[in-house]
C-alpha cells in the first residue's frame, strides 16, 4: 500500500520488456489499498514456454505414444495440441508463468531506490525478499475447486481423483496423497490381523509372548511387501504423470535465488552461473564456524553457571 508510482512503473516495464510473452494488468484494490499485477499469457506463448522449460507431454499413439519433452517444431505429435483448454493443465500454465517471472534477471548496474542488483540476479525474488512485493501466488479456479470438492473432499469410500489432483496441484502434491491413500489402505492388514490375534490370545504370559513373536514376524513381512508394492505403484504414477525419467537436479537450471558470476561451463560448454568454492569455504570459516563455536561456548558457560548455582 506504500508503493510509489516509480517502483510500479519500473517493475511493470521490466516485466513487459524482459518477458514479452506475458500479459500484465495493474489493479488497485480499494479495500486493502494495495496494487496487484495480474499476469497471464496467450496459448502460443505458453507453447513457447513449454518448449523452453522442456515440459513433458503425452505423444499421440500414431507417433509412438509415451511422454516426451515438448517441442514447438513438432507440436503436431502431442495429444490435445489442437485444444487450447485441455492441452495444458492449470498447474502447468502456472508453472510456466512462474518460471518466467522468477528468471527475470537484472542487467549490470541496475538499481531501484536503495536496492542494487548484481548482474544476472533475479529481480522478482529479490524484491520479494526486500518487501517490495508482498506475495507471489497463482489464483484458484473456482470451477475446478468445486469439482474437486465433490469428487474428493465430500466423497466417502471412493477412490481419490489423483489425476485431477495432479492436474490442479501438481505431481508432488498428487504423489503425496497417492502415498497417503496407499499407506492408509495397507494399514488395514496389520490392524485386522492384530485385532484377531489379540482376541484369540490367552491371558497367560506364554501365549502373549507367542502372539508378540507372531505379530512381529507378520509386521516384518508386511513392511517388506508394502515397500516393494509402493515402489511399483509410485513408478506407475511417475510414468503416467511424466516424471519417471526427468533430468537430474545437477543439470537443471539453478534456483532463482542463486547468486554467482557468469562463466562458460567446462562440462557442457554452456553459459552458467558459478559461485567459487573458495568463497563458500571462506564464509564457512569466518562466519558460520565462529558463530557456532560462540554459541557452543555460551551454552557451556550457562551449563557451568547452572551447576554452580545448584
TrEMBL record:
The keyword Transmembrane helix applies. It comes from Notiomystis cincta. Signal peptide: none annotated. Belongs to the anoctamin family. It is a multi-pass membrane protein. The chain crosses the membrane at residues 176-198, 210-227, 281-307. The keyword Transmembrane helix applies. GO terms for molecular function: chloride channel activity. Residues 165-309 form the Anoctamin transmembrane domain. One of its GO terms (cellular component) is plasma membrane. Keywords: Membrane, Transmembrane, Transmembrane helix. It is found in: Membrane. Its main location: membrane. This is Anoctamin.
